[in-house]
Amino acid sequence: MSRIPKLPISNTKENRPGLLNRPISRTIANSLSDADKKNLLLNHTRPLRNGPTTSAPAPRLKRAATVPTTTIPAAKVTKIEKKVTVAPKIPPYDYKARFNDLLEKHKVIKGEFNDLKDKHVEVSDEYEKVKETAQSSANERDILKEKLLNTLNDLREKTAEFERMKIDYEIQKHENEDLHRKTKLLEEVTSSLKKKTAELDQLQADFNDLTRRHTSLKEETEALRVLSDHLKKVSIEFDKLQLDYKESQETITKYKTDAEALQNILASMYKEQRDLRNTIQDLKGNIRVYCRVRPPLDSEASKPLFNLNVIDACSIEVEKIELNFSSARKGKSQHAFSFDGIFTPHASQEDVFAEVSPMVQSALDGYNVCIFAYGQTGSGKTYTMEGGCGTEQYGIIPRAFNMIFTCMEDLKRMGWELTIKASFLEIYNEVIYDLLNSSKDQVSHEIKMVNSKGTDIYVSNLKEEEVKSSHDFIRLMIFAQRNRQTAATLNNERSSRSHSVAQIKISAINEKRKEKFTSNLNLVDLAGSESGKTTQRMDETKHINRSLSELSKVILSLQTNQSHIPYRNSKLTHLLMPSLGGNSKTLMLVNINQFDECFGETLNSLRFATKVNSCRTIKAKKNLTMVDTL
Ligand SMILES: Nc1ncnc2c1ncn2[C@@H]1O[C@H](COP(=O)(O)OP(=O)(O)OP(=O)(O)O)[C@@H](O)[C@H]1O
User: Fold this and answer.
1) Which positions does UniProt annotate for ATP binding (predicted)?
2) Which residues are annotated as a binding site for ATP?
């Protein structure tokens, strides 16, 4: 209540008689604008923040107080002064001038008097106006006073209300503070509750984890218990097994000793068997000749056949009755031949190989071996050497390889490590072709000597592939066959007019026995042996005949124990040199067919085979060497 401004009593007209009663003050009051009056009133009614209003004079009032009350304007006074200063000095004797000057001065004063008169009128008018304004201001003041009183009453009421509100506000504030405190408390409680809840959750999770672990531990314990039981059993079994193991070890040691003894026996037996085989072969001769008669094919069923009588396992008789009596050869032509064996048209590939296999065995025993098929075109040489499709139809070459790989296992058991390498070549028109090289640009191949003794030879630039299984070998053989066929397609009937040679090189080493050997197995499918008269291709036939006749010459020279054997006269004899006359075993298969039209060629083949059969080479020597350091 102390802040409520009191009504300034000093502002009333009655308490300030000197101000409004004076005419000039009335003029000032009248000259006040409405805004000034309002300000004045506000200054009186404004709360007393800056001290009592009586001490702050209204700015307008100050300005109004400066209204000039003098009768002569200052400018005019200056003018007069100026005129007085600039007037020329009139000598005292010049009365006329002095009179004129006085006249002039009178004129000026008169003018000024008139001006002042006008001014007086003006000021009088202004005074009237100010008087009126003062009157209206007094009226307004009364109204304002009334308003002020009303406002003061309102103010008092409002102040009372304000006080009430203040009390309410205090109560509210108090309540608010109380509420704030409670809210804070609640927040603290909530936060601690949250913490507790989180802790509870964590505890719950820990509890769940522990429960899980407990369960798994329980299971593990159970499993461990089972394991422990099992371990106990195993331990008992282990003890038993240890006893058994000791016994077994003793038995194994005994068996090992026995096995070693057996192996030694086996090795010596194998050696004996090998020596026996060799003796038998020596007895049979190192060049052995078999004759195979090929059956007519279904397509050849209508072809007339000559008579062929198998006298015994080693002898045949061929007979042709010449019906054309005009011919010089009229009558019966009968010839008997004996070889190491005869394969009739009914003999299977297996039957043939059964006779050939000792030769392959010889190669595995360390001897050089050559097996070749001789005969006219279409007599069954390729069928005998390579065979047809399917294992039953396999010829000597794939069967020899199967046998090598089967024996390899037995040899391994006896401590032998074998390395097998294969190469395939073709001699056509006295030129050697590598059948494992499919590129068109063939390099030249020469037959060269391995050592100065000239007992062993090799073909230069020939591709040699190591073979690890019979499957590997079949793949190589098919590759070589295809190469040969491709060449045959380019050059019609080339396959019949070329000699095909499959060379197998066996290298064996026995670390235990400190022994090693290398042997060569040459498997040859010769070109057709028909004479030049029956063929159109003279050039090819010349080469074929030359190589075959050189073969025959070599065999004849060997037969007659000639000092010089013409091996180098043809590529074929040169290549087969180690297998024909040297330290080797040779098997020749003479293939014939029974067709009437082929009787002459068949006779030629049989005669050539007989020559070969009568040929005796020097006793074959095994290529075995003792190894000092492996
Ligand atoms: N013992 C046999 N049993 C069944 N068929 C055979 C027999 N011998 C050969 N043949 C078949 O006779 C045909 C000619 O045989 P092959 O091609 O082996 O004769 P070749 O003497 O090699 O001829 P070339 O000199 O032209 O190579 C082939 O179709 C072959 O399958």
Assistant:
1) 375-382
2) 375-382
- Amino acid identity, position 399: R
- Which of 536, 517, 530 lies closest to 592 in space, CA to CA? 530
The atom of ligand 1 lying closest to the CA of 375 is: 21
Distance 375 CA to ligand 1 centre (A): 11
Identify residue 59 by its one-letter amino acid code.
P
Could you tell me the distance, in angstroms and rounded to a whole number, from the CA of residue 479 to the centre of ligand 1?
Answer: 20
pLDDT at residue 27 above 50?
Answer: no
For the chain, residues classed under CATH 3.40.850.10 are 285-626
Q: Which residues line ligand 1 (CB under 6 A)?
A: 294-295, 297, 375, 377-383, 388, 495-496, 528, 591
- Checking if the pLDDT of 190 tops 90, the result is yes
Ligand 1 atom closest to 388 (CA): 31
Average of pLDDT values for 567-583?
81
Q: What are phi and psi of 68, to 5 degrees?
A: -65, 140
What is the spatial distance between Cα 436 and Cα 443, in angstroms, rounded to a whole number?
12
Q: Whose CA is nearest to atom 16 of ligand 1?
A: 380
- Alpha-carbon distance of 526 to 546, in angstroms, equals 13
| pTM across the whole model | 0.59
**Structure tokens that stand for 306 in this block:** 């000559």
Which residue, 412, 575, 409, 588, is CA-closest to 499?
A: 575
Sole residue written with tokens 């040929």:
615
ipTM for the whole complex: 0.98
Token pair of 436 as six digits = 């494992």
> Who's near 404: CB < 8 A, 6+ residues apart?
360, 363, 364, 418, 420, 470, 504, 506
In eight-state DSSP terms, residue 390 is S
Residue type, 365: D
What is the length of the chain?
630
Helix (H, G, I), strand (E, B) or coil at 287: strand
Instruction: Give the span between the Cα atoms of 158 and 18, in whole angstroms.
Output: 36
Beta-bridge mates of residue 625: 516
From CA 45, how far away is CA 47, in angstroms rounded?
A: 6
Q: C-alpha angle 198/199/204, rounded to 5°?
A: 95
**pLDDT band at residue 537, thresholds of 50, 70 and 90?**
low
In the chain, the amino acid numbered 491 is: N
Distance in angstroms (rounded) separating the CA atoms of residues 149 and 165: 23
Q: Taking 70 as the threshold, does the pLDDT of residue 38 lie above it?
A: no
Any idea what DSSP says for residue 598? G
Cα separation, 525 vs 495, in Å, equals: 10
Measured between alpha carbons, how far is 428 from 544 in angstroms, rounded to an integer? 8
Going by CA atoms, what residue is nearest to atom 15 of ligand 1?
380
Confidence of residue 86 (pLDDT cuts 50, 70, 90): low
What's the CATH fold of domain 285-626?
A: Kinesin (3.40.850)
Query: Which of 292, 294, 348 to mutate to test ligand 1, by most ligand atoms within 8 A of the CB atom?
Result: 294
Q: End-to-end alpha-carbon separation of the chain, Å?
A: 131
